[in-house]
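re: ur question from yesterday

yeah so i grabbed the chain u mentioned. its 116 aa long if i counted rite. heres the sequnce exactly as i have it in my notes:
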Amino acid sequence: MKKTFFFVSTFFYLALFFSSCNNPKGYVKGLGVTVSCGSPQNLLLTSTVNITIQNQTSDPMNQVAIKITAYGEDGEVVKEKIVTFDRTLAGYGTLSKITTLPAKAKSCACEVSSAQ
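ran it thru and got these structure tokens back, copy pasting raw so excuse formatting
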């Protein structure tokens, strides 16, 4: 009886652990939106980056806010900014937006900040 309880409880613990690790980058549980940002394209005075959001639910969303962190060559934070998508994100739809970053930006990370 004790061995059975041990195996069952171990199974539930492992299932819970692995389900919490299954969180795609940029996805906030409960919001149902994923975000991806491309590599910064360096121009003369600035850099641009393409941000794409995708709705993982059938419900439309408004005012999706994305936090972008830009990093320089040495990995230092160059700039952090919030970009808001004003258009409605349809159920299972995608939206893209190009935003500017400082010319020193060599890489960036994006995460969903909020959605309505």
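noticed a couple things. Residues 25-114 form a domain with the Immunoglobulin-like fold (CATH 2.60.40.3230). also The beta strands are 33-37, 41-42, 46-55, 64-71, 77-85, 94-102, 107-114.
anyway ttyl
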